[in-house]
Amino acid sequence: MGQKVNPIGFRVSVNHDWRSRWFADKRSFGDFLAEDCMIRDYIKDKARSAALASIQIERAANRVRIQILTARPGVLMSAKGKDDKTLLLDEMKQYLLKKTGKKIFFQIDEIRDQDANAQLIAENIADQLVRRVTLKRAMKRAQKTAMDLGVDGIKMLACGRIGGAELSRTEWMKEGRVPLHTLRAHIEYGFAEAKTTAGLIGVKVWVCKSEHYQPRTQKRRNSHAANA
């Protein structure tokens, strides 16, 4: 089963939580689900350069709280242009308020180890493929950076017309342990698509982290601050 299902859905209620947390009856369930998809698609399209890892949604009565995990929170807090002082976050809030008719609340959380986050790694590799960087080079760089941060293992897979080849093929790379069948293992999963001139190339990334995982770079910063 571990090789055939989404590793996040496979581990919900074990060590992963739902990305949408609310209750609805049969009549409103479909509307809420479509609304959640609309919210996620809009935020991802509007804040492409903010390196969004995940968007979690909670509902209570007539309020919607959106938690955004991002590696660049400054992009969401910045103004749209030199002459326009409106923040990107305020613009998104006003748009979603008109579309849903509900009060919107944003919570921005920063990710300090973006090179060890599966979704951000997948998007980074996809961006490099669009810029015509070779796949093996992008994978090796991502693999080395993630392992240096202290993850237990990482697995990457790409499928499509890699390098502009006539036939589609699959390439993968793995280092460390990624036990997809072990439910108690903390597995992060990310997926991204690279829109190249030869067609779409799908990129999947699995990252295994221990229970007491802390990025090694963060430890160095703390020790440096203590010495200072």
Walk me through this protein's architecture.
This protein is α/β, with parallel strands linked by helices and 228 residues long. The chain contains seven helices and eight strands; from the N terminus they run αβαββααβααββββα. It has helices spanning 7-10, 26-46, 73-77, 88-100, 118-130, 135-148, 216-227; strands spanning 20-21, 52-60, 63-70, 103-110, 153-160, 169-176, 186-196, 199-209. Helix 2 (26-46) runs antiparallel to helix 4 (88-100) and helix 5 (118-130) packs antiparallel against helix 6. The longest helix has 21 residues, at 26-46.
Shape: globular
Question: How much β-strand is present in the residues?
Answer: 25-35%
Could you give the order of strands across the largest sheet?
1-2-3-4
Q: Cα distance, first to last residue?
A: 50 Å
Uncertain parts: 217-228
Helix content: 25-40%
Largest beta-sheet details: 4 strands, mixed
Number of helices: 7
Name the structural class.
alpha/beta
Please trace the helix and strand order, writing H or E for each element. HEHEEHHEHHEEEEH
Would you report the number of β strands?
8
